[in-house]
Each structure stands twice: as C-alpha cells, then as structure tokens.
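Hi C.,

You asked whether I'd gotten around to modeling the 346-residue construct. I have! Everything is below, sequence then structure, no commentary in between.
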Amino acid sequence: MKNYSIIISLFFLLLLTIACSETHTFILETPKKVSPNSSITLKLTEANNLPIDSIHFFVNGQRISSTDNLAQFNTSNLGIGKHSVTALSFYPGKTNKKKGSFEIFPTEKPSIYTYKIINTYPHDTKAYTQGLEFYNGFLYETTGHRGESTLRKVELKTGKVLQSVDLSNRYFGEGMTIMDGKIFWLTWQNKKGFVYDLETFEQEKEFQYGKSTQGWGLTHNETELIKSDGTHKIWFLDPDTQKEIRSIQVYTNDRALDNLNELEYIDNKIYANKYLNSAIIIINPKTGVAEGIANLKGLTKEMEKTQKLKPEDEVLNGIAFDAKTNRLFVTGKNWGKLFEIELVRK
C-alpha cells in the first residue's frame, strides 16, 4: 500500500512538472502603416492556448483601455511618426512584457520645389558651415571641425569676417541661432551647447542636452529654440533654461526623414537641410509633416564649375533668411559662394 501511495505521488509530481514546464509564447500584433485620425487594433495572443489572467496595453508608456486580449483606439491624439506599444500579460506566478510599434504617416505628398538664383556673394572656402543666420544686415555663421570651429559675423556683399571667436579644440562646432540678444551655439557629440553675448561674442554659460544625443542644427520661433540632432526628430527647447520641452517626428507620406541638419524658421515653417542630399525640407512645426521638398542639387553642380568639392563632405549646408526683404540665402561647407535664391513650386 505504501508503494502504491509513492507511485501516485510521483505521478502527480510528474504531471505538475509537465504543467510547470509549459512555456507561454506571446504574439503581439500591431498595424505597421497608420493614417492620422484612424481606428486601430492591438492584439496579444498566446500561441499555446495557455491560461492568461489579464493583459494591460500601453502606447508610449500610457495605459489604454482594452477588453480581453484586444485594445482598440483612435490615433487622433497621437502625432505623426513612430509610437511604441507594450503588452504586459499576467499569468499564474509570472508576467511577460512584449514590445512593438506602429507608425502614423501623413496622407498628403509634399510639394516639390526647384529654385532660381537671384544673387551670388563670396563665401570663405575655409568656412565649414554648420550654422547660418541673417541678423540686422549681417550674416552670422558657425563652422565645424575640432580645432577649427569658429563663430563669425560676416559682411554679406564681401564675405569679409568682421568679428570672430574660436571654440575650444575639444569641441566640434555645429548650428547656431540668435535670440533675445544671445547667440546659442551647439556642439556635435559632446551633448553640450554654449550661450554667447551677441555684441561681444563673450561666452556666458553652457548647457547640457537632454534626450537628444547630438547637436546639429538650431533656429528659433518667438518662444522656443528649435534643434535637430541628425535623426528624423526636431526638439523644442526653453530659451531660458535650454531644457527640451517636446519633440516632433518628421515624415513624408511614405517615410521618416532623417539626417536633418541646419535649420531656419521662415514664415511659421521649419526649413531643414537634409545632410548629403542637397535638399531643403519644409516642415510643419506643429505636426512634423514634411509639406515641401526643395531640390537644390543644381547648386552643387553650379559650385563644381569653379571649385572641386570633396564628395560626402563639402555639401550643401546653411540656410539664412532676411525677413525684412524676403531674401533666402544658402551655401555649403567650404563653398566659395553664397547664393540668394527663390524657391519655385513645381
């Protein structure tokens, strides 16, 4: 009888071991390409039909309502771009976290622009242009490369450098902008920017980046600094604290646009050089929608008539705008010319 009891006990122990060894396999289903203001469904299934106590769904870290293994919601409160999804499931004695994502794309294609050259001005061939801005009749420019990065005040018609200050050799200078009597200047990979006095070019303070890991382009609207970091994201900063407040993702109707570089704020739109593409992207600052693309490859060819450019290096970069006379200026890294152009919609 004792042996019989032992056999029964071993049998149930075996069953328990088999039950405990059953592995939950979860499959998270998310849509890939989504339109704005549309209804979508998230679904989590267990491939082996094993029991699940409950499932919680999160979008961008915020829990959303769900029923059983489904979550249905409208994308009207979400912006253009990629959004993270997490499905947290609970089952006897354990939890499982499954991650995914979906992307919201604009429905309209961007307008395409070409250009015409209005004027041409001299530009320093030793200026590896990173930031460019027109202010009170003068160009202000920042240049790059460690040991060669400078902040400059430049006379438009002659290209003469009227005032200059060097950046420490430790840093690779990037974009700049002028706001409230201050010059804000970014560095590339040091996660650090600097603030200078507009008149004296004396450095007043420095600031650290937040979630944006690099510094590329910089401009501003009436209340915020606007920063690019080489990705498809644009960041908005408090000009007093330089803290990142929010961001947008830049998309056309079929793709994210990365390598966003030098910036300019023109007529309530963000104009961005797309690094290595000889193009300017016209961006809605509220939504991130790329509303226009200006093809400026012809300017590179124009430069190559009189100057040999290093491929993948001495490229189009630098946008400045004179709001008083509605003049748009562009140049490139080490280019010998600065062009005043007019964009022409095709």
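If it helps when you're writing up: The domain at 23-104 is CATH 2.60.40.10 (Immunoglobulin-like).

Thanks,
B.
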